Predict the structure.
Amino acid sequence: MNKITVVGTGYVGLVSGTGLADFGNQVVCVDIDTEKIALLQNDEIPIFEPGLKEVVDRNVAHGRLSFSTNIEKAIQESEVIFIGVGTPEGENGEADLTAVFAVAELIAKNLNDYKIVCTKSTVPIGTGEKIINIIEQSKKTNNTFDYVSNPEFLREGAAVQDFLKPDRVVLGVTSEQAVKILRDVYRPLYINETPIITTNVPTAEMIKYASNAFLALKISYINEIANLCEAVGADVHTVAKAMGSDGRISPKFLHPGPGFGGSCFPKDTKALVATSKKLNETIRTVEKAIEVNNNQKSRMVNKLFNLLDNDIDGKTIAVLGLSFKHMTDDVRESAAIEMIEKILGNGGNVKAYDPEGMANMKKIFPDIIYCNDWESAVQSADAGVIMTEWHEFRGLDLVKVKDLLKSPIILDTRNILSMSKLIDLGFTFDNVGRKSVL
Ligand code: UGA
């Protein structure tokens, strides 16, 4: 049984630690946030992530998973240490690595035996080398260590499944010994024949950015195609379906919408551009994907304003959906933020509802009205806008929506409402890339 410490209990660290315990390893998840650890020790999960509690409970019950604030002790007692702390956006679009480097220092101070230091956090290309240098320079013993870059490919909302059944595991390594131990850590996947790609550290770091930036590009591409569909009277859903039938393209990540958000794509695309600039290279496709994404968010605001003849002052808008996508409570970089900002900035009022994201959005907009259900949000509003594709919005009772709204005006930025029903009920509406087509 491998003894593992996972530092950081955010989306990445907590899901990874829990998944590693489920693979049969002995895992302790540590954090400096005493409140978070207290919650976890009390059998409460500090984030909304479907299916996570069940796997946490199972592994805690089997004695394979525990939580602690004693990071030093955990490091000393483990052979493998995963770094899963946050890397927020810093200056010039570069990732802020303060927390990562602080963990490296701690590992150096507590290197009481051979250990593997494995980074899961998304870190700029070249960070592995810096972590190795920090540990080499700060360690007080002759004990050795190996470094591994093991990027995660978890989607919030589907993170547990993504961890337990990944498409691939990437290991950027510096020694054969590390490969051997990491293969054992991921043994259930290894015997399942999940592709395990072993490479050097910079390649592993690049794989993560290249993958995320490619998906971001794909979304920006379909969003621009959607906008063009509006101009030519085409239906972007049919276009995407036909494109996706081509195995070389694949139907995934071809859903047009209000622009990508979350803690990853916006940050990682900017970080990749920052890296390329630093190295005097260009990555214009990604630069453009960022620009297109910003425009897409603003385009949604314009769509709403157009539906209201640019007369927002004093109007109340029901915003349905606040999280950056469904199945998560995360509102970071959510397209709903710009929407709310612009409504408020133009003298409008917002009544918002989201099944999971309201507590987080309250930290950004404490003064808008938060409702307990979509009905209360829509009640007496001048228009509604769907920002997140929650299942409960897919099944909205449009007759009721029409009755509750002051005027039947709706913007569907996720294309989840039935256009024929909207037309039959006499709604004035807009969506992304298919309004004029039935
Ligand atoms: C993303 C990647 O999908 C993960 O593989 C990666 O591990 C993760 O970033 C990370 O780097 O940690 P995540 O940000 O959780 O995961 O969410 P996605 O499902 O990728 O969605 C990102 C954004 O793109 C959302 O705003 C979503 O609404 C939007 N999106 C996604 C679209 O607009 N259209 C699509 O077809 C797909």
User: Anything to note?
Assistant: Residues 122, 152-156, 212, 215, 219, 253-255, 257, 260-262, 264-265, 324-325 surround uridine-5'-diphosphate-glucuronic acid (CB under 6 Å). The domain at 296-430 is CATH 3.40.50.720 (Rossmann fold).
